[in-house]
Amino acid sequence: MDTLHLTNTTDDITKAGQLLKAGELVAIPTETVYGLAANALDAQAVAGIFAAKERPADNPLIVHIDDKDTVYSLWETVTEEAKALMDAFWPGPLTIILPRAACVPDIVSAGLPTVAVRMPSHETARAIIRAAGVPLAAPSANRSGSPSPTTAARVAADMDGRIAAVVDGGDCEVGVESTVISLCGETPTVLRPGGITPAQLEAVLGTVAIADSITRPLAEGEVVASPGMKYKHYAPRAQVTIVRGDAAAFAAYVNARADEGVMAMAFDGETQALNVPFVTYGAREDRDAQARELFEALRLADDRGATVLYAACPPVDGVGLAVYNRLLRAAAFRVVNA
Ligand code: AMP
Ligand code: MG
Fold first, then answer.
1. Given a cut of 90, is residue 200 above it in pLDDT?
2. What single-letter DSSP state applies at residue 119?
3. Distance 308 CA to ligand 2 centre (A)
4. Is the sign of the CA dihedral 114, 178, 55, 132 positive or negative?
5. How far is the CA of 42 from the centre of ligand 1 (A)?
6. Is 110 a pocket residue for ligand 1 (Cβ < 6 Å)?
7. Which one of the ligands is nearest to 49 CA?
8. The model scores a pTM over 0.85
9. Strand, coil or helix: what is 307?
10. Could you list which residues have their CB under 5 Å from ion ligand 2?
């Protein structure tokens, strides 16, 4: 299949909408990462997403909408907590999980009784949802397991020949996927950290629980609330290890391994003392820049032939928790102290 490369002109957005309406797959820009979209109400179209990504069948998708009222047809009931979160954070990088309505195909939720919904803030994403005229199921537009794409070029590298079109909407502003919160239990629970921080959620809801699977490996066979958390994820081809320590300790640690042909993933402004090739991902305290640049840095390391990559450990609060969560999985939970 020839993959069309579209932009955000009115004509191209109309074209993307037509393709989606016809059951085709289209990669779209969002403020978090690029998404691989299909008509969420068409089980066959959604099956195409799993095939194109080679995504495990038990990993559910997020449904993207452009009008808050659409939740009334997707969720069985819209709770007061959900309304408060929608008012505070939509459009934006927050995904909310509640029991699903009958019109949502099983395959979207991978058979779970719930469905995850988000209203993106990216203007092009929203224009495409309107043009399609249906809610769009859209996971990240990468091959399953690899770093999520934050540019149209990275989508094309993973998906050309597998999908009908890619819409180029520029670089993603947030750079890590949405925060996922479940409102199905007694206490609202963050299943995946993202662009909206736990503190922001607490300001609206009061108490919020954080699933401990966010920062620890799962036990063999463990049942987990967010199936996406159990897979090897976000990983480049290079073997990644997270290194805790200040700039000097990090440099000493990687320089001591220069003979082994290692590469460093360092913070901006902390590369002077490095005697090994490096990529960077934002300054040490700039959590937003780290989120924006993380996935591209991992992919760049692969482009440059890295086989062993030592990554400076990010701060783990605020948006940093999302960055740390992704990096831990990219590193298969290998963390060392410098
Ligand atoms: P991605 O679309 O690649 O960002 O992945 C979506 C994430 O949301 C995965 O980690 C899923 O496990 C999670 N998710 C989506 N729907 C649900 C749901 N109904 N219940 C729990 N987690 C979900
Ligand atoms: Mg993903």
1. yes
2. -
3. 23
4. positive
5. 18
6. no
7. 1
8. yes
9. coil
10. 140
